[in-house]
């Protein structure tokens, strides 16, 4: 039988097998997280190899812990991570989209279309999809807090903390807005400027946004000393408040009994000298960085500091020093001689606060003068699992706000954009001929998986739902989406179910790229 | 290393994956198994568990949290329940058993609903609605605000919490002791607590009006850590005693030559020094080497080593200390100086005890004697004051009793009992009661116990469920039914007819909740179980009460835990130890 070159694609069976196996493996990953998509999605319980237990609904978290073996499946895991980095939200969506696209590929391949042709058409389709999404998106003003909160609410609706979104959403929005310099010009946000402090005990409702700083533990009071200081002058020191140690190989040799007294007295004098210098600089709150080589402090120095009425917080992590200094407007001091007034930060009040419930103490800094652009969120939760999940959820919520800072457009949620893109792509495909038309149509249909899955997870009839959506979108209702609360199709803009444009565009683009990559693989060589 | 498994979906992971209904059923079964363990220990007639660990240590207890903490629970869902009990223990202190039972019952019933085709998320939102409604109703109708809390209420609550424990028989005696103890440590809240307490009052306050008034009052706190519980075995439980304004520490004189008692008076108090340092021959720090050329120097150095400590001791004695307590060691040599001066000295005391005692006597724990000039002196302000210190013999050991502390905020309960296990269990029971009293003093609201609240909520929620048109209705109804597990279990444990009792209970609560209920009928809301008689009675009159905050909290915790487990539809177990 004569083959017409270019029309159909024949190749060695090996390439086909590899591709099929890759597609199956990747699809399995997508299926694994599918049930956690959307507000009615379920959680996964994972027992990690070290015995730790994790309960999560976040696609990126689940996949990263799952330890998949197949290389193609690993690509999907990485896909969800890159979505996490890029947009922070939609990590499940991106994997589900990729799974659907792969499914479409499988049927296109079986028709004998060359993988490269599929890939190039998909890339075109993705570009077109981005354009379509941009055309339906509505611009958002960062000053419009209520709209930002609406977007965050949408993101949180699928999380464990969704019941507390009234409280969490404003916290997420305010924390991100608090760290950007100028809402009009900012193009990105560094989420590291927001510090999350977890404290077990209480409920999620007790979570608060602290304008200032909170440490994980209380002040060090083993030698007495104050636990509350008003009009605090804060010094962040990196030197040690303990007697200098000799090197390993060296020894102090005492050959005279008077020398023993001298050593003891000198140790006291030495520490007293340092403490007096600290006091002289005007500092009444002292943060001491953790030290490995030497004790960062000892009983004697704490005793002196306590007598001088200086509040001491010890064991400050080195990595936190920069953040703390920026927040409090102080400068880290590496030697006691360089400690001076201008290096101190000021706060109205510094003191221990007893956490209700657990009874733990934390040090709180409030009323910081010249605060830097940083924020602290004090997270509470009844146990570590809830706390960790709440932390991830708030992170996602903050990412949503960040996406809006990066790209200031909002689109409807609830599957509305996917249906709209799918419809418009199909129209676009009708105007094309050849492979492109065929592949783009398949791409368009694959996108409908999102509303389909949303409806399925919500316990609705997926086919009824998707067809209803199509109808409404054809009639020009671009905001029509799935209302999981009432189990009907309704206008998402009316319900304030909104999501950042960046989440959707990046999900489609990243998923397409990954699918193209998997398509291009035709051989799998195992190197020992 | 286990081989990678594919579970039919083509997902290759190193481990196992279960999903859908299997997981849910598995989780619910595990949770029920945990609850079943503690079920029989609920209530005044609940029985105890004897736990034997792998080295043969025995623990006998009735406390849910303690039982669960001892079990090595493997199943992650079951562990959520164990955590739940721990949380209830730390947040409320009492009601650990009931919270686990309610959570597992909620799970069991929810699972049945899922099996009959209702989506878990619908059930979850139903449970949440039910919880909200329940808390609302509880705050509005069931909570009794005790504006001027008197000892009777506290005694009642303490007795209720003790009734299920080993000391229940002597409830009257121990309740009085617990109330006295908590009241004796009351102190004004410090700044640090203020923020915390504010939240508590908010969540506990029933009506906003009353809450405002409550806030204006000086906030008091009752740090339970200031109550020192000592266990000494021997004699009977009834010979336990409470030392008001006194403190006993588990330590004895360091040397026989010291006096067994020093007596003083209010005007001429005994001074006590609290040290957190060694009174031993001084040793140089690491890295300091003693090298002598002249043999005569050895003597000098030895002498100096002794003198350094001797000087310290002299300074302490000069300041008038009659009793010296240290957390570290005292060697025989130094003891000599104390014996000569007629001072009681005790070594290796517990540091926390000393801190508390220091607070109680108005002294300070001294870590170092260095002063601001770089010399060594002893600050007389660090000395605590009391009227007498005696060494008394209790059981097999001796204890130092410090009487008439001049500071505030510390007292001691000495528990006596026939054996170690009993003492431990008494300690736990007393701890629960102390927590209850503390909660009541802090929030001053109470509800009736004995299943009254659960029955009332159940009746109310059932009524409420019928006003809803959505599928959540079913979940709320199940929530209502699940609450009845408490009165049911109480009755079953007491070997009474649970069906009949619960029916009676519900009937009277239904009557009290009628829209046109008369005053007389409204009072029926306090009807609870009388487990001794096997009848129903007015539990407010009978004095079975609990702090409202613990009821509200345990409802919240139980629901949250149930929801956490219910949301899971996939369980992935990764094979152990295959990290590269």
Describe the overall structure.
- By secondary structure, chain A is of the alpha/beta class.
- Chain A has helices spanning 13-34, 59-66, 71-86, 91-110, 115-136, 145-156, 165-179, 257-280, 299-307, 318-328, 384-406, 416-430, 434-447, 449-457, 462-474, 492-495, 501-520, and strands at 43-47, 53-56, 138-139, 194-200, 208-210, 212-214, 228-237, 252-254, 285-289, 311-316, 332-333, 345-354, 361-368, 375-381, 409-412, 480-483, 488-491, 498-500.
- Chain A is built from 17 helices and 18 strands.
- In chain A, α9 links the parallel β9 (285-289) and β10.
- In chain A, α5 packs across α13 (434-447), α8 crosses α9 (299-307) and α12 (416-430) packs across α15 (462-474).
- Chain B is of the alpha+beta class.
- Helices cover 48% and strands 18% of the residues of chain B.
- Chain B is built from 19 helices and 26 strands.
- In chain B, α1 runs antiparallel to α4 (96-115), α6 packs across α7 and α7 (171-184) packs across α13 (420-443).
- Chain B starts with a strand and ends in a 6-residue tail after the last strand.
- Mean pLDDT of chain B is 80; it is low at 1-7 and 195-217.
- The chains are: A alpha/beta (528), B alpha+beta (580).
- Chains A and B meet through α1, β1, β8, α8 and α9 of A and β2, β3, α3, α5 and α8 of B.
Mean pLDDT of chain B: 80
Number of strands of chain A: 18
Helix and strand content put the structural class of chain A at alpha/beta
Give the oligomeric state of the chains in this entry, treating copies of one chain as homo and distinct chains as hetero.
Answer: heterodimer
Proportion of β residues of chain A?
15-25%
Q: Pick out the low-confidence regions of chain B.
A: 1-7, 195-217
Q: Could you tell me the strand content of chain B as a percent range?
A: 15-25%
| Helix share bin of chain B | 40-55%
Tally the helices of chain B: what do you get?
19
Estimated radius of gyration of chain B? 29 Å
């Amino acid at each position: 039988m004569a083959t017409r070159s270019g029309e159909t694609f024949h190749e060695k069976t090996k390439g086909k097998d590899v591709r099929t196996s890759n597609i199956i493996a990747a699809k399995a990953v997508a299926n694994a997280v599918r049930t956690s998509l959307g507000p009615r999605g379920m959680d996964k319980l994972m027992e990690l190899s070290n015995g730790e237990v994790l309960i999560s609904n976040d696609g990126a978290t689940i996949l990263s812990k799952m330890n998949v073996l197949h290389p193609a499946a690993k690509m999907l895991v990485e896909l969800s991570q890159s979505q996490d980095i890029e947009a922070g939200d939609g990590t499940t969506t991106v994997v589900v989209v990729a799974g659907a696209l792969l499914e479409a590929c499988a049927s296109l391949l079986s028709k004998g279309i060359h993988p490269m042709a599929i890939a190039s058409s998909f890339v075109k389709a993705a570009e077109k999809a981005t354009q379509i999404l941009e055309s339906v998106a509505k611009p958002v003003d960062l000053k419009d807090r209520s709209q930002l909160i609406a977007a965050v609410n949408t993101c949180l609706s699928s999380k464990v903390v969704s019941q507390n979104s009234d409280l969490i959403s404003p916290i997420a929005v305010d924390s991100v807005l608090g760290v950007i310099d100028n809402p009009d010009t900012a193009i990105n946000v560094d989420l590291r400027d927001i510090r999350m402090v977890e404290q077990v005990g209480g409920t999620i409702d007790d979570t608060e946004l602290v304008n200032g700083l909170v440490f994980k533990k209380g002040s060090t009071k083993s030698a007495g000393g104050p636990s509350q200081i008003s009009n605090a002058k804060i010094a962040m020191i990196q030197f040690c408040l303990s007697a200098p140690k000799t090197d390993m190989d060296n020894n102090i040799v005492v050959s005279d009994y008077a020398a023993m007294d001298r050593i003891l007295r000198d140790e006291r004098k030495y520490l007293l000298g340092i403490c007096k210098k600290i006091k002289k600089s005007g500092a009444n709150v002292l943060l001491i960085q953790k030290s490995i080589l030497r004790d960062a402090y000892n009983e004697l120095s704490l005793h002196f500091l306590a007598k001088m009425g200086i509040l001491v917080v010890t064991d400050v992590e080195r990595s936190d020093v920069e953040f703390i200094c920026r927040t409090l407007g102080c400068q880290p001091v590496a030697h006691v001689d360089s400690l001076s007034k201008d290096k101190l930060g000021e706060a109205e009040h510094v003191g221990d606060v007893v956490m209700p419930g657990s009874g733990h103490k934390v040090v709180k800094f409030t009323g910081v003068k010249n605060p830097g652009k940083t924020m602290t969120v004090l997270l509470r939760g009844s146990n570590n699992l809830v706390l960790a999940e709440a932390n991830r959820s708030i992170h996602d919520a903050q990412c949503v706000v960040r996406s809006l800072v990066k790209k200031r457009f909002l689109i409807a949620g609830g599957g509305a954009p996917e249906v709209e893109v799918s419809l418009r792509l199909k129209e676009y495909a009708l105007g094309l001929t050849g492979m492109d038309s065929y592949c783009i149509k398949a791409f368009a249909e694959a996108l409908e998986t999102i509303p389909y899955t949303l409806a399925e997870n919500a316990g609705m009839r997926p086919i009824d739902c998707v067809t209803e959506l199509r109808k409404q979108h054809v009639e020009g209702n671009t905001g029509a989406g799935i209302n999981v609360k009432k189990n009907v199709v309704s206008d998402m803009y009316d319900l304030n179910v909104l999501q950042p444009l960046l989440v959707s565009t990046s999900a489609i683009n990243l998923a397409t790229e990954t699918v193209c990559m998997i398509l291009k693989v035709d051989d799998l060589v195992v190197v020992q | 290393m286990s081989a990678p498994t594919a579970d039919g979906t083509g997902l290759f992971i190193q481990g196992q994956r279960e999903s859908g209904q299997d997981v849910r059923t598995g989780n619910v079964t595990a949770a029920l198994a945990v609850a079943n363990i503690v079920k029989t220990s609920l209530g005044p007639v609940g029985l105890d568990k004897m736990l034997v660990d792998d080295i043969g240590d025995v623990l006998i207890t009735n406390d849910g949290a303690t039982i669960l903490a001892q079990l090595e629970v493997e199943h992650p869902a079951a562990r959520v329940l164990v955590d739940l009990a721990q949380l209830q223990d730390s947040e409320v202190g009492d009601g650990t058993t009931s919270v686990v039972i309610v959570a597992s019952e909620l799970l069991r019933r929810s699972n049945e609903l899922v099996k009959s085709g209702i989506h878990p998320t619908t059930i979850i939102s139903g449970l949440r609605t039910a919880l909200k409604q329940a808390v609302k109703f509880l705050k509005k109708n069931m909570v009794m605000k005790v504006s001027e809390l008197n000892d009777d209420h506290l005694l009642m609550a303490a007795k209720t919490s003790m009734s299920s424990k080993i000391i229940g028989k002597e409830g009257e005696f121990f309740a009085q002791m617990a109330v006295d103890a908590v009241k004796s440590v009351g102190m004004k809240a410090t700044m640090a607590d203020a923020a915390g307490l504010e939240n508590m009052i908010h969540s506990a306050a029933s009506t906003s009006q009353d809450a405002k008034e409550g806030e204006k009052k000086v906030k008091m706190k009752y740090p339970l850590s200031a109550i020192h519980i000592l266990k000494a075995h021997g004699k009977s439980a009834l010979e336990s005693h409470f030392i008001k304004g006194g403190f006993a520490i588990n330590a004895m004189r360091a040397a026989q030559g010291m006096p067994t008692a020093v007596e003083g008076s209010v005007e001429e108090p005994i001074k006590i020094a609290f040290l957190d340092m060694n009174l031993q021959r001084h040793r140089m720090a690491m890295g300091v080497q003693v090298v002598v050329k002249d043999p005569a120097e050895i003597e000098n150095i030895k002498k100096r080593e002794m003198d350094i400590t001797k000087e310290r001791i002299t300074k302490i004695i000069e300041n008038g200390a009659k009793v010296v307590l240290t957390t570290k060691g005292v060697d025989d040599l130094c003891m000599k100086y104390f014996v000569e001066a007629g001072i009681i000295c005790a070594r290796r005391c517990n540091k926390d005890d000393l801190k508390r005692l220091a607070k109680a006597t108005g002294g300070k724990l001294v870590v170092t004697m260095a002063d601001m000039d770089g010399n060594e002196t002893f600050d007389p302000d660090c000395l605590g004051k009391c009227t007498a210190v005696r060494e008394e013999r209790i059981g097999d050991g001796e204890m130092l009793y410090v009487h008439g502390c001049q500071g505030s905020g510390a007292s001691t309960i000495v528990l006596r009992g026939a054996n170690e296990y009993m003492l431990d269990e008494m300690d736990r029971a007393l701890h629960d009661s102390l927590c209850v009293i503390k909660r009541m003093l802090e929030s001053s609201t109470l509800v009736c116990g004995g299943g009254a609240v659960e029955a009332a909520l159940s009746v109310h929620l059932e009524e409420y469920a019928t006003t809803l048109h959505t599928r959540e209705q079913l979940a709320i109804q199940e929530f209502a039914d699940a609450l009845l597990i408490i009165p049911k279990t109480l009755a079953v444990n007491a070997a009474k007819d649970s069906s009949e009792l619960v029916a009676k209970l519900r009937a009277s609560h239904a009557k009290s909740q009628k829209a046109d209920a008369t005053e007389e009928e409204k009072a029926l809301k306090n009807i609870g179980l009388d487990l001794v008689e096997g009848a129903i009675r007015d539990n407010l009159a009978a004095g079975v009460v609990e702090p409202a905050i613990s009821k509200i909290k345990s409802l919240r915790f139980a629901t949250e835990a149930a929801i956490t487990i219910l949301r899971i539809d996939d369980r992935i177990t990764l094979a152990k130890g295959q990290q590269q």
